[in-house]
């Protein structure tokens, strides 16, 4: 563990089971296992992206202050997914819960097939950017050097992302 806190941004999502409760449970586990939740967006509903023949997703962005490294936080997130019943059957498939590490401070991390920070597709996906812009509009993307607000305003993704609560 590092001694300093880092603000990390995660996107939670799911399209199976009690979707709202799954998000709440994931946030509770993150607060218990990984650090202090300092912000959370509203919950948004979006049609499935990538593999579209499945139920709509709920997504929520959270900011966490953590003393964990990015890899340790990723490991905690994967463990929480497992605790909540996540089974990985196919890429972009249906899931009870998904916890993606989007940003980790100002770090740029590329560990082949394990962890890429910032998330390589975040700026292309409205279901990531809309909730993220709600809680981190002035955060600067460490590679693109634009704020989350700017990136969200210029996104080409045409999926309908609807705030539900």
TrEMBL record:
GO terms for molecular function: 2-amino-4-hydroxy-6-hydroxymethyldihydropteridine diphosphokinase activity; ATP binding; kinase activity. SUPFAM superfamilies: 6-hydroxymethyl-7,8-dihydropterin pyrophosphokinase, HPPK (SSF55083). Pathway: Cofactor biosynthesis; tetrahydrofolate biosynthesis; 2-amino-4-hydroxy-6-hydroxymethyl-7,8-dihydropteridine diphosphate from 7,8-dihydroneopterin triphosphate: step 4/4. InterPro entries: Hppk, Hppk_sf. Residues 91-102 form the 7,8-dihydro-6-hydroxymethylpterin-pyrophosphokinase domain. Keywords: ATP-binding, Folate biosynthesis, Kinase, Nucleotide-binding, Transferase. Its EC number is 2.7.6.3. GO terms for biological process: folic acid biosynthetic process; tetrahydrofolate biosynthetic process. Pfam families: HPPK. Belongs to the HPPK family. Catalyzes the transfer of pyrophosphate from adenosine triphosphate (ATP) to 6-hydroxymethyl-7,8-dihydropterin, an enzymatic step in folate biosynthesis pathway. This is 2-amino-4-hydroxy-6-hydroxymethyldihydropteridine pyrophosphokinase. It comes from Pedobacter changchengzhani.
């Amino acid at each position: 563990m590092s001694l300093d806190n880092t603000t990390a941004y995660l996107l939670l999502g799911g399209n199976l089971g009690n979707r709202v409760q799954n998000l709440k449970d994931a946030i509770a586990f993150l607060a218990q296992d990984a650090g202090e939740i300092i912000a959370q967006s509203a919950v948004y509903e979006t049609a499935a992206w990538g593999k579209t023949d499945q139920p709509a997703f709920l997504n929520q962005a959270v900011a966490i202050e953590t003393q964990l490294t990015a890899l340790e936080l990723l490991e905690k997130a994967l463990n929480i997914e497992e605790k909540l019943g996540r089974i990985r059957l196919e890429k972009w498939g249906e899931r009870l819960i998904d916890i993606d590490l989007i940003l980790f401070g100002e770090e740029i991390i590329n560990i082949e097939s394990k962890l890429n920070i910032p998330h390589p597709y975040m700026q292309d996906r409205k279901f990531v950017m809309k909730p993220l812009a709600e809680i981190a509009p002035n955060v600067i993307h460490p590679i693109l050097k634009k704020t989350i607000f700017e990136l969200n305003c210029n996104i080409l993704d045409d999926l309908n992302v609807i705030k539900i609560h």
